[in-house]
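Subject: Protein entry, chain in single-letter code together with its fold tokens

Category: Structural biology, sequence-to-fold work with a learned token vocabulary.

Notation: Tokens come from a learned vocabulary of local backbone shapes, not from coordinates.

Start of record: The labelled sequence and token lines come straight after this line.
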Amino acid sequence: MKIVKSVICLSLALGMACSSTAPVGTTPTATKSAIDIKVDSVLKLMTLQEKVGQLNQYNGFYDVTGPEPKSGQAAEKLEHLKKGLVGSVLNITGAEQVRDIQKIVMDNSRLKIPLIFGFDVIHGFKTISPIPLAEAASWDLKTIEKSARMAAEEASAAGINWTFAPMVDVSRDARWGRVMEGSGEDPYLGSQIAVARIKGFQGTDLAANNTILACAKHFVGYGFAEAGRDYNSVDVSEATLENVLFPPFKASVDAGVRTFMNAFNDLNGVPATASSYLQRDVLKNRWNFSGAVVSDWGSIMEMIPHGYASNLSHAAEIALNAGNDIDMESYAYVNHLEDLVRSGKVSEENLNDAVRRVLKLKFELGLFDDPYKYCDAKREKEVTFSEPLQKIALDMALKSVVLLKNEQNLLPLPKSGKRIAVIGALAADKTSPLGSWRIGANDNTAVSLLEGLKNYPNAQITYAKGADVALGETKFVSELTINTTDKSGFAAAIETAKNADVVVMMLGEHGLQSGEGRSRSELGLPGVQQELLEAVFAVNKNIVLVLQNGRPLTIPWAAENIPAILEAWHLGTQSGNAIAQILFGDFNPQGKLPMSFPRSVGQLPLYYNAKSTGRPTANEPNSVFWSHYGDVPNTPQFPFGYGLSYTTFSYNNLRLSSSKLSDSEKITASIDLTNTGKVNGTEVVQLYIQDEVATGTRPVKELKGFELVTLAPGETKSVSFTIDKKMLEFYSANRKWETEAGTFKIYIGTNAQTHSFKVLTVE
């Protein structure tokens, strides 16, 4: 510690002694923050090789409890640690392990610059919350922030101080497996959730030992991969880029996110990692982002198969000059950047800018003051899987469930007096509910549905598996083998269903069937599950279908025939408890879909905020010359913003405080919401607009606000939204953000298909 402090004191002294004339591209000392002064002081002490080292990130490679590697890549990485040629590492966890790795750097490197430890804390660490798409279905920003705060508490106790989350990519295509990691199809909702998660991860003080750096990813366009196929090319217009893809990233910058990750894909012909337009022009210059940009895993190296770089040295040159600061597992910077700077292919100014950004993060985290501040084994033991975290995970899970259908009020189920058959392998599974991207969690740590049902001892429960979803070993890095042939459990399931008053069938995707690299060309129930559903329906039509999945599914048969459907996603550690409480009515479902559910995969990409087109409807009956499919309606099975409750709500008296809006004015749009049912309920009231005529074609609806309202039976509340010109602006054909004069339809309702509106004239 004394060595570290002496280095900083010397650095600070050197910084204060500097001339007030700053180098080109830097800020004069007089206007710099205390951290910026310290950063420049350390920078002056660094050799070119040490600067390069700060931009080099390695995956975990060395278990310090074992023997020291003597040869091969692991030995080389260890030597780089000792020489200060590594700035950050990922996938090293545990307070003691992190301490030991940090100690290698602090004991051996010349300048004792501490490491940052990163990890994919996507929806929890050991305690797992619902997948991010499920959390988005809650529309509950405060609870989502608590969920991220919970994850930060637990991860930071295990030595981690940087998460590669949140993913803020907008996506309209459920074939893309990583929709499970985002917030759905809408840029406004996605922006609000991005801010909530960033606040949760980073807290109010990054120097605290229970907060971690957040990372907005993937900049940009990853969610628009062609055909929903992961890593595929992206080609979008400037208008789509500005109006749809950029907003959640801009909101992340405004919320103070400290790191960005670029994307695997090429965007309009240029790999995102190579794009100076994205990383320098937009992110660092236009948006004034002061944090660091990290490549996605190996994305610098991947410029070579993209056909954009001739070799790894060329890729390193392109990436650094484009504004990519940190190289994650490409070995491009550590092997080539020093020579590139010496040869003038990479400017020292660009190199220093990248290093400053990394050093600044380390000062902000307080690592220079205490490199071991995240290495408290006692706190790790106290926090991990603790009861307070379980309560937050349960609350988040409850609020994430969406009731899609409930004919004849089949739900909630009575707590006694009914014979309930539970069918489906997922109902007994304690790992699948954890979902994808939960690499810090242990298998078999989720509460299964069967375990959750045990909290209701008066219910007469019988169980039959029916059929497995996946066969053999299931691994994060390997393709799953889906059961398409084994129906040996059908007979027992059918017999169990025959003897029941109601059947709860838990069907859907295995937890590792969505996520990175898990694109699907068909989105129905995987394997033999649809056959199982229809076979059970043939003997007992009183079915509650509980869906467990990481993306929207195509379920047209179920939507038509099954009386009650719950979208329960992959809900994490407390999955079974949450679903059981909703099935028996101890919690009234309040979730709303953050992504449209298609009727057919052929509709994809599908999204509510589409354009009208010049031929939105048929000119006459049976006409074919309009924008439609001949075999399926244009509409989704379940639209964006959709979700039912065990009570009912009515919307009445939509009104505007004024029908005109001028420059500096604000008006209010209001509606009266009434709980017309018999139990308390929470409704997500949604505000949409439509710009009727503009210099560029505009969506038929755009979400611009929402509010969660809880009402007792018979209670009415007036819900209001403030509208100003800022809310109505868009990136126009004039290539700037502006609000154009004209008429706007203002909608307030229960989902994106609400029809009642008032017209607002903007002057």
User: Anything to note?
Assistant: The CA atoms of residues 341 and 347 lie 6 Å apart. The first helix runs from residue 2 to 17. Residues 1-30 have pLDDT under 50 and may be disordered.
